TrEMBL record:
Organism: Photobacterium angustum
Signal peptide (residue range): 1-22
Keywords: Signal
Source superkingdom: Bacteria
Name this polypeptide is given: MSHA biogenesis protein MshK
Amino acid sequence: MDKKMTWMAALLLSVCAFDAYATQDPTAPLGWVASKTKTSQAKARLPQLQSIICDGKQCSVILSGQVVSIGERVNGYTLTNVSESSVTLSRSGKKWHLALFAENIRTN
């Protein structure tokens, strides 16, 4: 029984050692360490302006299928201004102006 356990331990250690050896690149220069891979952040897409709906004093906007009012956010962009034909979005100190064609404007 002792001999069997010794063989099992030796086999287990050799498998672990082989796994550790396989993780290193044998063709790399001595002392070389692989650089960390950069993870790029996915850029938020600018929402698509689909409609502007104004009823008197307040206007709502449909951006990428979501109804949004001033101060609300879509895809990280904040709706800051709404006129009858365009909107202003802001993100990280930058501003974007999106405009509609005249046939997409609806006033109640």
